[in-house]
Amino acid sequence: MHPAIHLTLVSLIQQVLVGLGKTTTLFIVSSGLTLVLGVLRIPNISHGALYMVGAFLAYSITRMLGGGAAGFFASLLLAPLAVAFLSLLAERFLLSRLYERDHLMLLLFTFALALIFDDLVKIVWGSGYRSLPLPAMFQGSFSFLGLALPRYSLFLLCVGPLVAIGLWFLINRTKIGKISRAAAVHREMVGAVGINVGWVFAAVFMIGCFLAGLGGALVAPTQSISQGMDASIIIEAFLIVIMGGLGNVWGALLGSLIFGLTDSLGVLILPQFSIVFPYAAVIVVLLLRPSGLLKSAW
Length: 298
What we know:
Layout: H1 3-40, H2 47-64, H3 68-93, H4 103-125, E1 141-144, E2 147-150, H5 151-173, H6 175-192, H7 197-219, H8 229-244, H9 249-269, H10 276-288
Antiparallel strand pairs: 1-2
Helix pairs in contact: 1-5, 1-7, 1-8, 1-9, 2-3, 2-4, 2-7, 2-8, 3-7, 5-6, 6-7, 8-9, 8-10, 9-10
């Protein structure tokens, strides 16, 4: 095989792996967003801010526990749980009073929540950058058939399917999932049979925000943790949700796959214009399928 062709194939496979790793984070965050959007009918602008809070909490928890693998894995559980608890407080004391209002009112409220969380991050962690080194077990790469496969990317490739399977089981095989699907279609009827719809909505909102925190915790070792990191992820997550179909978790998975791979392969094809590729993919999809790739819940 010609060396140049071999190099191109190696680069292509490595970029696909990088793209799949990013796909995992995008899917986790966007699945939480589309879950809330599908059941509660709330375009949660604060989702990106909760992702940022999850990243900062993962940084602090890992440092508090002395770093290393134990601290990192603990942060993957504790940071999303803390984000879910914050979201429960916001939902029970504030958001639950606005469910009967217009979508615009809910949109403005979640935007206000995003600003509040931004200020909380600045108060607690300051405006400087933070960095969280990868645990030793995830540093470096495996060598396979002449390919260098980053250990952390492979870890993310394992986490993504686990989250997808967990969401499928939650939505299709648990009582809360079945009630949530019914409430998404006809919430008044669900309330009429004696089910506390308010707590169902609270549980769904917590799960969605837990996923935002998990996405932040997973991305913390791969980039600088800073105030403002929520801006790009919330735009990408909304584009993925729209592209996949509003409220459709599997649409979020498909949209994340398209977005992550086009972003990664764009770096290999035209590095100077790589940022354009995923957004061009969104435009093409919406031109061909204006309602999204899969059936929308709206």
